[in-house]
């Protein structure tokens, strides 16, 4: 019989709680109150927003969208330290799906567009192409930076952009056709339009 002590912590039954931070929360976040409540609730693992769509720590990555309400605080470090003092594991919630600001203007081909060629947006954020460099290059940099800045036990990817699963649109990737012209390939389930990547070399569909 396997002893409970030999089972990795993540393989045991756990009570997980998530604090869903918004951009204004660094101004009003009461870390002590939150951690006291979660500790009394016997929470084993705490997850909260760290980066991706919005950074809740003083990121040095170019283009990483830091909340304008961060000020001199570092909510990620504060929550991580307080949670670990109470014996909790900490998972970083990383929103891979979208961002706003400089990354879009510098790399519009990393993001999705609709059938009119307009950028697809939600809540003021540009939706990223799941097969583009935002996912394959930028987000791994966010993971490395956030892990090196804190003592995290892992990451919890959140709301990955897969339009067929979350909206009335179906996604179509763009592949380079023999003629050199971009080729649109909508899924058969497309109804009110088609979302596609903004690049002609998106790795997702091949002939």
Q: Can you describe this structure in just a few lines?
A:
With 207 residues, the chain is α/β, with parallel strands linked by helices. It has one domain.
How many distinct helices? 5
Mean pLDDT, as a whole number? 76
Q: What overall form do the CA principal axes indicate?
A: globular
Question: Please, what is the oligomeric state?
Answer: single chain
What is the topology, as strand order, of the major beta sheet? 1-2-3-8
Q: Termini separation (Å)? A: 52 Å
What is the helical fraction, as a range of percent? 10-25%
The biggest beta sheet reads: 4 strands, parallel
Could you explain how this protein is built, in words?
By secondary structure, the chain is of the alpha/beta class. It has one domain (4-197). Helix content is 23%, strand content 24%. A 4-stranded parallel beta sheet has the order 1-2-3-8. The model is unreliable at 159-194 and 199-207 (pLDDT under 50).
Lay out the secondary structure.
Layout: E1 16-19, H1 31-40, E2 45-52, H2 75-85, E3 89-95, E4 98-99, H3 102-106, E5 112-113, E6 121-122, E7 125-127, H4 133-149, E8 154-158, H5 163-166, E9 170-176, E10 182-186, E11 194-197
Parallel strand pairs: 1-2, 2-3, 3-8, 9-11
Antiparallel strand pairs: 4-7, 5-11, 6-7, 9-10
Helix pairs in contact: 1-2
What descriptive keywords fit this protein?
single chain; 207 residues; alpha/beta; four-stranded parallel sheet; four-stranded mixed sheet; 24% strand; disordered C terminus
């Amino acid at each position: 019989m396997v002893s409970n002590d030999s089972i990795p912590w993540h393989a045991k039954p756990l009570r997980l709680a998530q604090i869903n931070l918004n951009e204004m929360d660094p101004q009003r976040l009461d870390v002590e109150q939150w951690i006291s409540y979660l500790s009394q609730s016997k929470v084993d693992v705490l997850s909260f927003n760290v980066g991706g769509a919005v950074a809740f720590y003083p990121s040095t990555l170019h283009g990483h969208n830091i909340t304008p309400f961060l000020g001199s605080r570092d909510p990620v470090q504060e929550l991580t330290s307080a949670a670990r003092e109470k014996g909790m594991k900490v998972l970083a919630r990383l929103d891979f799906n979208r961002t706003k600001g400089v990354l879009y203007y510098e790399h519009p081909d990393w993001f999705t567009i609709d059938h009119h060629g307009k950028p697809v947006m939600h809540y003021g954020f540009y939706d990223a192409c799941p097969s583009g460099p935002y996912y394959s290059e930028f987000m791994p940099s966010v993971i490395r930076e956030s892990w090196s800045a804190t003592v995290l036990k892992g990451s919890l990817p959140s709301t990955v952009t897969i339009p067929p699963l979350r909206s009335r649109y179906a996604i179509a990737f763009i592949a380079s056709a023999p003629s050199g012209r971009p080729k649109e390939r909508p899924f058969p389930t497309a109804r009110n339009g088609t979302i596609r990547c903004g690049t002609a070399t998106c790795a997702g569909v091949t002939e």
